[in-house]
Amino acid sequence: MENILQGCRSWIACLVLSCAACAALPARATDNSTYLFGGWNGERTRLAERGIRFDAGYTSEVAHNFSGGDKHLTRYTDQWNAGATFDLQKLWGWNGSRLQIVLSDRNGRNLTADAHLPGYQQVQEVYGRGQTLHLTIFAFQQDFFDDKLQWSIGRLPVGTDFDAFACDFQNLTFCGSQPGNIAGDYWINWPTSQWATWLLWHTTGETYVKVGAYQLNPKYIDDDWARANGWKANFPGGTTGALIPLEFGWTPSVNGLPGSYKFGGWYNNAGGEDLYYDIHRQPIALTGEAPLQNNSRYGGYLGFQQQLSGHANGDGVTVFLNATMTDTRTSPTDRQFALGAEYHAPFDRPDDAIGFAFGATHGSHRLASYQRLYNQLHPGNTVPVQSGYEYATELFYNWSPLPSINLRPNLQYVIHPGSSHNGNVFVLGLKTIVAF
């Protein structure tokens, strides 16, 4: 089974072989199990009771553009991940302590780049960061005062710790921590990690405040560096500063149904290059001089999620709203909004779901002003003007033949991708998720 899965690189073959292999597994390994390989004849449970929990998964995303770009293509990309969590209280008697390790490996091609789709956001969210092996999490966590205070330190992806959001959709607009979607040159989402630490205080049973500090180093977003070093727990030279996020959260139960309401902000003391002015505070398009170096970068976000019907964490409708803004001086995309809903257990199928979302990503007016001025001064060598909003929609149906397998065909339609001057994009996708 493992050899078959490791050899899958064609999405059709992977889908067919995975389903065939599932059908061939003994009933005790698949029926009602959230893992494809089941409980390993009880060994997974016995290890967990001793303090060792293993997790492994596979995600693939296929996308074909019927309109938009300069060619019609089909592209496939995937991610394997494997990790373990060690409960150090059970293993060594260290009260409230745990160690987590997660590795991720990405492969495949990117439709957005290969078909020259001009969008701000990718139509395959699982692509990126060097398409290589990454040390995604390598962190120690300690709980204090009956878990009211939690502290973690190690290699951590900030997007997993702050403004965290699930990746149920395939378009990046609706996936993961939004600040990483529009300020991804320093707010780094999965699978890349930075040396970091955070502190979480549960102020009440339903509220919390969380603060962190994350190393800023341009090597972490350098694909060439990642291919050689992304899997290492080293300390690369060239640190420029720190990212300081702060988040407030409220997790109420409304009519017995769970909700999550959070807002936060961040400060980057490494600064960044101005998109319009040079070092003498003159337009770069006029002088051609080096950009002005701003001393800081910053932004804020909010995320609301609430189940409206059904049973808690089960069937029913859940809605969400995400919004993020960052400084327009240094970020080519400076705001993003997304709202949507998921309906779980339609047609009396407990593991199926239907999702729909609408989102908008805005290009920085500072960058657009530079581009317009540059085009006026260089009429024979113009550049595209990235201005206004890109509007994205996605509709998916999640079919789960087994609790451990999710096949998620989706339709994506993007209006004004990357600019109000660009033609619309229509994409058919398939997201496949397998939990081993």
In short:
By secondary structure, this protein is an alpha+beta fold. The protein has 11 helices and 19 strands.
Name its key features.
disordered N terminus, about 425 residues, 16-stranded antiparallel beta barrel, two-stranded antiparallel sheet, 11 helices, globular, alpha+beta
| Main sheet properties | 16 strands, antiparallel, barrel
How much of the residues is beta strand, in percent?
Answer: 35-45%
Number of strands: 19
Q: What is the radius of gyration computed over CA atoms, rounded to a whole number of angstroms?
A: 23 Å
Mean of residue pLDDT values: 91
Report helical residue fraction.
10-25%
SS-based structural class?
Answer: alpha+beta
Number of helices: 11
Low-confidence stretches: 1-31
In spatial order, strands of the major sheet run 1-2-3-4-5-6-7-8-10-13-14-15-16-17-18-19
Inertia-based shape: globular
Can you put this structure into words, describing what you see?
This protein is of the alpha+beta class. Helix content is 17%, strand content 45%. It is built from 11 helices and 19 strands. Strands 1-2-3-4-5-6-7-8-10-13-14-15-16-17-18-19 form a 16-stranded antiparallel barrel, surrounded by 4 helices. Strands 11-12 form a two-stranded antiparallel sheet. It is globular and about 70 Å long.
